[in-house]
Amino acid sequence: MLLPAAPAAGAAPASVLEVRRQLARTQSVMFDARADLHAMRDEYPRQPARFARIRAAIVRLREARAAYKAAAEAFHASPAGEQLQRLRATYR
């Protein structure tokens, strides 16, 4: 499942709530893709087309990680992300 990438730099800013939702959705998809890949480790007996399914799971995980990275960058560029960075800086 591909999620839309973060909006371009010149695009209108999304609401903080929508940016947080997008981050949460992409994180969920990434964790599901990783769990699917790890679940194939215990598959026994080996099923036909196992390597094709493993390859597809790896591709899904890579796509999910890229979508999560874009969503995280969008979050950190939002006002909520900037506030989070300021709060983190006070505790370092």
Order of helix and strand elements from N to C terminus = HHH
Fraction of residues in β-strands: under 5%
Task: Provide the structure class.
Answer: mainly alpha
Q: How would you sum up the major sheet?
A: none
Helicity range of the residues?
A: 55-70%
Features:
mainly alpha, 92 residues, elongated, single chain
Overview of the structural elements:
It is built from 3 helices and no strands. The protein is mainly α and 92 residues long. α1 (16-39) runs antiparallel to α2 (50-77).
In brief:
This protein is mostly helical and 92 residues long. The chain has helices at 16-39, 50-77, 79-90. Helix content is 70%, strand content 0%.
List the helices and strands and how they pair.
Blueprint: H1 16-39, H2 50-77, H3 79-90
Helix pairs in contact: 1-2, 2-3
